[in-house]
Amino acid sequence: MDPTFVAGDRLSAADVYAVWQVRDLVFAVEQRCDEPDVDGLDLLAGTTHGWFADDAGLSSYLRTFVATDGIRRIGRVCTRRDARGRGLSGRLITAVHDRWGDDELRLGAQAYLEQWYAGFGYTRCGDPYVEAGIDHVPMRRPGTS
């Protein structure tokens, strides 16, 4: 099964609801993030949402977009608790690499996931920081071209 990818300006109302539902479950409920999730990027044409879904809704999700500095960012990577351990997030990261891996990619990893992202070729590229009350590290993966 391949992941679904949809541009932000092509999301249906049901898609938006499903995206925000899985992000709310993981980030707000489980991780108790202390900042709003909705940041004005989700519905932009240059934002792409990727996910796997099952009968219970989106099971794993991420978002990618090109930032104002011209570098593609990956974020909001999450998997529903009951769908963890199946490698879904890794498959989403790999699918992003398949689509955009010729270019440099960056992300802000939750600090405890630094080694997991390192397994995909990401290295720390700055000082640790706190976002939404959670320790993060900036990471980059050079392009393959």
DSSP E strands, number: 8
Spatial shape: globular
Decide which structural class fits the backbone. Answer: alpha+beta
Question: Any idea what the CATH architecture of the domain at 4-102 is?
Answer: 3-Layer(aba) Sandwich
Domain N-acetyltransferase: 48-140
Organism: Aeromicrobium marinum DSM 15272
Pfam families: Acetyltransf_10
GO molecular function: acyltransferase activity, transferring groups other than amino-acyl groups
Describe the model.
Residues 48-140 form the N-acetyltransferase domain. InterPro entries: Acyl_CoA_acyltransferase (IPR016181), GNAT_dom (IPR000182). GO terms for molecular function: acyltransferase activity, transferring groups other than amino-acyl groups. The chain has 145 residues and is α+β, with helices and mostly antiparallel strands. The chain has a domain at 4-102: 3-Layer(aba) Sandwich (Aminopeptidase), CATH 3.40.630. The chain has three helices and eight strands; from the N terminus they run βαβββαβαβββ. It has helices at residues 13-30, 88-100, 114-118, and strands at residues 4-7, 47-54, 57-66, 72-79, 105-110, 123-124, 129-131, 134-141. Strands 1, 2, 3, 4, 5, 6, 7 and 8 form an eight-stranded mixed beta sheet that branches. It is globular. The protein starts with a strand and ends with a strand. The relative contact order is 0.16.
